[in-house]
């Protein structure tokens, strides 16, 4: 008992030990071991039984895996993926960790956890900490995001559609002002707590929502969904957010409840203690999405000739209830009623198949009573009796599939035929690539389904592939019969679009061995479901749904095979075919259009010849206050001062127009006093008197537009002319596609504006299109005069960049009938604003802005028409248009990599024995050699004059017979756990040898790029040396506080001085690595050492890592160029195939771990 009393403080008992023991006599019992001896405390049999039960729970494999995942997520919440152990100790009971978790749990998961030393943020002393060995992307999904997924909300919408569940006590009412603030706060984008949002203003509502997301996620990770307030604030202090946590607890009583029982403040997540919880989502969560895709032009293998597509269709199985217009659907110049639209969709479905897989056939299963006629080659009708009414169509579809397979099996039993594979699909899908690959790459399955990461409805019957063998069709039929039975008995009354999905999910997931967690990984896999071998294909490739509100191929990853136009997206399917069929070489058209945006050689309709662009420009309307360098801007080899830069931008603006729309003209409205001279074909100056000073330029712009329209109207009244349409734009935009479509597709508007989903400033005067008729120009002039009046009277003192936006918004949104919610949908629409018919075009297509810090067309969807370059992005405008030929630098670049045939292990991939890629199977050594050869292949395609040097172990049995490739043996320790350390040593040895050679005999300058051997060089890297002539060594960085730098890509200038400085820098890194991080995880030591060497310099500002822009800094005596990983070390998302999701201006792609098979 005496010993127990001494443990009061460490056990954090609320009272004395004796009182505590006496209070819980059902748990503790006391006895006297002998006369004169102190009493002894022990557990009662009931308590000991509970203890054994607790130990059984802790030791169960399921609980251990769940605990490891929750602990990993807790560390990931910390940003740097590490936390002091004392913080975890405070939370361990709430986390459900065993009391001896360090020895019984952590020690068994060395791939997850590592104990290290960190500086305590409160005491500034070194303390023990737990760190996550590597970031687990699959775990970086918050509780609210998982709930949104379960409701079918796609990733690109979740950030705007997630709000926090609010539960207030009975009788608790918010005052109107507070309720309005809460509603607006809830509508702010949801930023994942696993993302870094420290760049936000700490006092902003957006930052507060991110803080609440962290607190919500932390409490969600706890078993009891509650913890002491002190524990919560202790965690917040480690993140530097303690004050924000306190503020959030006060501001959000509907999310967090603070209990004061037992003299302890406990923070409780309210939603966890509600009997019924419904996820709170913002209104108007709808989906209409679009398409952007490259169609492979490479020769096919002939498999598609033995593939037949099968769909169920009847002319009354589609209703215009799926689209906004209940009577007619308008696409381009065509208007479709219900029946016509259904037939048009069926024909487009066939069109896509016959372009993508020209030798395949199409069979349409239809109602014998349906008046359906399709006169197309390689298309046939197959009537099957059944119930094809709208509410029973999904059930009938499965019956029809079964009937079709039974007929085919009967035919095969009577007369064996060539194997024909079948793909059963909806008729609202677009096949945009060869699907023969499914059958070539997976020879042993019977039936294939598509899956998505959706707990409730992971499977769908809209895409089912069946192998053409007799056995496979029999197994597929039996499987579908089981699904039909479940559908008919359990889900017959379910929503007509859900029954098949629920039945499929139950049949598949009810098998005891089936692991549904694989649905979250996005990788194809096979599984025996009963007697049927089922191949599961990811919807992200084989049943991709376009994002809401976009047009044509908008937002589609380049390796998607099948696009599904669900529900209200069907209209977009018709638009997409027009775009898809506009060139015989779809692949070349889309790639060129996206990357270079060169003008299609196909003749235009003549409209662009009658379009004139009008911009306001004076040589002093642009200031270098907009860019970082206040005196000069450097782009490539050119340096621009203020005036030169303005003129360069104007010329690039004209260049884009003349490439995209060569018959159009440009008129420059300018100050008569401006010393401006432009000698260009089809370009003219138009002086207009006014105030062109920087702070009044936006106001003057609208005045100039009005004056110009008045002049044109006067000319038209005197002498009628050909209709000329006008597009008034800023001079910092890039027209990258034909804008004649605006006037062709929308013949009845007067004036067009661009809009974005921004409540405060949804409209902008930087892009205004005006029809060239006399009436339209008059209406546009009256509209702009109203805007000018509002601007002059209400917003004259507003920020110079906001006045026009605020005035436009007031004029438009003050009309009582105007519904501003349409701005959130991203679809073009028309509305009469007073006497003016205004067409509203989405900024996502007609005024798209590249992300801050990106280069060229980084991240631009393929169907963007106009790119807007704001502020610091103007530098990218010149880079984008640069067409100068390569300078030959790549011939003087040599790639250097460290490689030995035993430096790669299949522990990095799921299959521990063999890796299968296509039809090839690789063991450990073969796979390593294959990767090395692919590494060389990429370099020799992207930079054919460059060389490759392989630094290797002299003992390694390595042989590479390739042109321009050589081996360079260096003695060292190449074992797996020491390879990163050896890599830096090898780099230093190599540089020392080259410096010695240069000192003995000067040679031509050869630049070196030291890289991992699991990277793909996909563009010319000579630009690094051309655009940045003065650096010594270049590193890649990412926005990661713990490991911002990496030694997997290091560029070194080929001068003697640069190599010397680079060697000294690497020697310092090696010293830090050897002394401080030698025992760190093998993949982290080099990163930690690099970070310490760079960030320990007192002048270094690490916040620049968050901006994604290249920058230079002297690190000691070495001039280091920092390049963003988003361009020079880009990593594809986990589980994606080939170049899935890669921005078009990426130069180097890095393939980590499980991504390697691609």
From TrEMBL:
Residues 3-275 form the PORR domain. GO terms for molecular function: RNA binding; transferase activity. Keywords: Transferase. It comes from the Eukaryota. InterPro entries: Nucleotide-diphossugar_trans, PORR_domain. Pfam families: PORR. The keyword Transferase applies. The keyword Transferase applies. PANTHER family: POLYPHOSPHATIDYLINOSITOL PHOSPHATASE. This is Nucleotide-diphospho-sugar transferase.
């Amino acid at each position: 008992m005496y010993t127990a009393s001494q443990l009061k403080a460490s056990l954090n008992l609320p009272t004395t030990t004796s009182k505590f023991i006496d209070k819980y006599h059902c748990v503790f019992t006391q006895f006297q071991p002998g006369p004169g001896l102190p009493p002894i405390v022990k557990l009662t049999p009931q308590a000991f039984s509970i203890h054994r039960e607790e130990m059984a729970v802790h030791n169960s494999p399921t609980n251990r895996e769940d605990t490891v995942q929750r602990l990993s997520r807790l560390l990931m919440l910390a940003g740097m993926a590490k936390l002091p152990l004392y913080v975890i100790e405070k939370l361990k009971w709430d986390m459900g960790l065993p009391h001896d978790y360090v020895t019984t749990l952590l020690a068994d998961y060395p791939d997850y956890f590592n104990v290290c030393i960190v500086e305590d943020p409160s005491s500034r002393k070194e303390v023990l900490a737990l760190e996550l060995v590597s970031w687990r992307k699959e775990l970086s999904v918050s509780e609210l995001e998982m709930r949104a997924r379960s409701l079918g909300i796609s990733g690109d919408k979740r950030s705007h559609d997630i709000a926090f569940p609010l539960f207030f006590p009975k009788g608790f009412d918010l005052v109107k002002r507070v309720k309005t603030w809460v509603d607006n706060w809830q509508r702010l984008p949801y930023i994942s707590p696993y993302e870094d949002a420290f760049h936000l203003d700490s006092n902003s509502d957006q930052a507060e929502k991110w803080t609440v997301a962290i607190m919500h996620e932390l409490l969600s990770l706890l078993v009891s969904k509650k913890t002491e307030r002190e524990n919560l604030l202790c965690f917040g202090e480690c993140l530097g957010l303690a004050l924000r946590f306190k503020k959030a607890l006060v501001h959000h009583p509907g999310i967090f409840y603070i209990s004061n029982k037992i003299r302890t403040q406990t923070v409780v997540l309210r939603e966890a203690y509600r009997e019924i919880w419904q996820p709170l989502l913002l209104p108007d969560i709808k989906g209409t999405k679009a398409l952007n895709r490259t169609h492979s032009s490479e020769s096919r293998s002939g498999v598609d000739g033995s593939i037949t597509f099968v769909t169920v269709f009847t002319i009354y199985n589609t209703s215009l209830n799926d689209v906004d217009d209940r009577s007619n659907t308008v696409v381009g110049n065509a208007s479709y009623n219900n029946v016509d639209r259904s037939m048009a969709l069926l024909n487009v479905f066939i069109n896509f198949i016959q372009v993508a897989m020209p030798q395949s056939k199409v069979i349409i299963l239809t109602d014998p009573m349906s008046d359906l006629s399709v006169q197309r080659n390689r298309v046939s009708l197959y009537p099957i009796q059944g119930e094809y009414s709208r509410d029973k169509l999904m059930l009938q579809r499965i019956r029809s599939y079964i009937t079709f397979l039974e007929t085919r099996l009967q035919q095969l039993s009577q007369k064996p035929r060539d194997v024909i594979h079948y793909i059963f699909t909806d008729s609202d899908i677009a096949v945009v690539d060869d699907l023969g690959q499914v059958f070539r790459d997976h020879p042993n399955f019977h039936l294939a389904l598509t899956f998505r990461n959706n707990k409730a409805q992971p499977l769908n019957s809209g895409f089912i592939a069946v192998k053409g063998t007799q056995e496979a069709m029999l197994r597929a039929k039996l499987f579908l019969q089981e699904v039909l039975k479940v559908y008919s008995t359990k889900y017959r009354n379910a929503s007509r679009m859900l029954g098949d999905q629920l039945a499929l999910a139950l049949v598949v997931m009810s098998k005891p061995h089936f692991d549904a967690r694989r649905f979250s990984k996005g990788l194809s896999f096979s599984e025996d479901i009963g007697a049927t071998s089922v191949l599961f294909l990811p919807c992200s490739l084989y049943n991709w749904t376009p994002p809401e509100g976009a047009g044509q191929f908008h937002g589609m990853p380049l390796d998607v095979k099948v696009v599904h136009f669900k529900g209200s997206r069907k209209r977009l399917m018709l638009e997409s075919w027009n775009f898809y069929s506009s060139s015989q070489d779809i692949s070349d058209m889309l790639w060129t259009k996206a990357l270079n945006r060169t003008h299609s050689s196909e003749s235009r309709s003549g409209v662009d010849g009658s379009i004139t662009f009008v911009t306001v420009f004076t040589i002093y309307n642009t200031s270098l206050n907009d860019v970082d360098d206040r005196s000069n801007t450097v782009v490539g080899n050119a340096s621009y001062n203020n005036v030169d830069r303005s003129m360069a931008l104007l010329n690039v603006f004209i260049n884009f127009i003349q490439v995209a729309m060569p018959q159009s003209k440009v008129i420059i409205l300018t100050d008569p006093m401006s010393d401006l001279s432009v000698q260009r074909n089809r370009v003219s100056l138009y002086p207009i008197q006014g105030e062109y000073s920087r702070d009044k330029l936006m106001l003057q712009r609208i005045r100039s537009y009005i004056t110009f329209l008045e002049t044109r109207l006067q000319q038209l009244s005197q002498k009628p002319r050909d209709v000329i349409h006008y597009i008034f734009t800023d001079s910092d935009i890039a027209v990258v596609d034909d804008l004649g479509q605006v006037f062709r597709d929308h013949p009845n508007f007067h004036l067009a504006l661009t809009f974005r989903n921004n409540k405060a400033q949804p409209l902008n005067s930087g892009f205004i299109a005006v029809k060239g008729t006399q009436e339209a120009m008059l209406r546009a002039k009256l509209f702009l005069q109203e805007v000018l009046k509002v601007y002059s009277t209400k917003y004259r003192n507003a920020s110079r960049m906001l006045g026009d936006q605020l005035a436009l918004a007031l004029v438009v949104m003050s009309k009582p009938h105007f519904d501003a919610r349409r701005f959130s949908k991203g679809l073009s629409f028309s509305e009469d604003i007073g006497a003016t018919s205004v067409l509203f075009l989405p900024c996502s297509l007609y005024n798209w802005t590249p992300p801050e810090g990106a280069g060229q067309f980084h991240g631009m969807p393929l169907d963007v028409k106009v790119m807007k370059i704001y502020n610091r992005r103007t530098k990218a405008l010149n880079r984008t248009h640069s067409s100068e030929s390569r300078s030959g630098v790549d011939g003087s670049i040599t790639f250097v990599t460290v490689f030995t045939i035993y430096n790669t292990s299949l522990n990095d991939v799921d299959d521990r024995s063999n890796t299968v890629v296509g039809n090839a199977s690789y063991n450990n050594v073969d796979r390593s050699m294959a990767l090395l050869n692919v590494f060389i292949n990429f370099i020799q395609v992207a930079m054919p004059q460059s060389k490759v040097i392989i630094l290797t172990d002299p003992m390694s049995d390595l042989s590479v017979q390739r042109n321009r490739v050589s081996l360079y043996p260096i003695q060292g320790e190449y074992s797996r756990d020491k390879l990163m350390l050896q890599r830096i040593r090898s780099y230093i040895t190599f540089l020392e040898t080259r410096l010695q050679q240069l000192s003995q005999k000067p040679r031509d300058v050869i630049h070196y790029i030291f890289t991992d051997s699991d990277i793909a060089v996909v563009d010319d890297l000579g630009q690094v040396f051309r655009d940045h002539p003065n650096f010594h060594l270049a590193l890649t960085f990412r926005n990661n506080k713990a490991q911002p730098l990496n030694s997997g890509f290091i560029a070194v200038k080929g001068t003697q001085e640069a190599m010397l400085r680079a060697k000294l820098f690497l020697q310092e890194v090696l010293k830090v690595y050897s002394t401080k991080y030698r025992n760190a995880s093998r993949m982290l030591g080099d990163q930690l050492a690099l970070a310490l060497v760079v960030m320990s310099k007192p002048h270094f500002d690490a916040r620049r890592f968050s901006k994604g822009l290249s920058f230079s800094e002297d690190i000691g005596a070495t001039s280091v160029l920092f390049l963003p990983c988003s361009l020079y070390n880009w990593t594809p998302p986990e589980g994606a195939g080939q170049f899935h999701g890669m921005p078009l201006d990426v130069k180097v792609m890095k393939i980590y771990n499980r991504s390697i098979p691609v």
